[in-house]
Amino acid sequence: MSEEKKLTIVVTEDTFDKAMMSMFMATTAAGMGVGVHVYFSFFGLNLLRKGFQPELPEKYKPMTGHFMEKMKGMGINSMDDMMATATELGVKFYACSTSMGMMDVAVDDLVDGVTVLGAAGFIDVAIDSDAQLFIG
């Protein structure tokens, strides 16, 4: 793929499945030479908090550890490792400034390398992308 291709992803939930899907898509596309931009809004913003560990939703929550072990056995990296890989591949991460205010998240609460951006700023990034994904 050409480096001129661009993918934008919006993530609005902080569950393990949504977190991993966003990283699978981001790292795969970046590995194909696509420029990837991921915008975390509402509860998805928690995925950018230092030390946050996503869990499966509701009744599946007790199975989170089992899923993590199964993925490890399959050679699939953890969320933290996948985010590090995504960063190494040039994936850009954005935190929604409005969601940060609503959820009392400070810039110091975020992992390194995140850009704080409002909706209009992200629309400027996304408007000319070749594909957009909503994971929420």
Account of the 3D structure:
Helices cover 37% and strands 19% of the residues. The chain has one domain: Hypothetical Protein Ychn, Chain: A, CATH 3.40.1260. Helix 4 links the parallel strand 3 and strand 4. Strands 4-3-2-1-5 form a five-stranded parallel β-sheet. Helix 1 runs parallel beside helix 3 (79-88). With 136 residues, it is an alpha/beta fold.
Keywords:
alpha/beta; Hypothetical Protein Ychn, Chain: A; 5-stranded parallel beta sheet; 37% helix; globular; 136 residues; 5 strands; 5 helices
Q: Could you please say which CATH topology applies here?
A: Hypothetical Protein Ychn, Chain: A
Derived structural class:
alpha/beta
The fourth-level CATH homologous superfamily is: DsrEFH-like
Q: Average pLDDT across residues? A: 93
Major sheet strand order: 4-3-2-1-5
In angstroms, what is the radius of gyration? 15 Å
Distance between the termini: 27 Å
Domains counted in the coordinates: how many?
Answer: 1
Q: How are helices and strands ordered from N to C?
A: EHEHHEHEHE
- What proportion of the residues form beta strands (DSSP E)? 15-25%
Strand tally = 5
For this structure, what is the CATH class? Alpha Beta
CATH-derived architecture: 3-Layer(aba) Sandwich
Q: Could you describe the largest sheet, including whether it forms a barrel?
A: 5 strands, parallel
Low-confidence stretches: none
- What is the approximate shape? globular
Number of helices: 5
Helix content: 25-40%
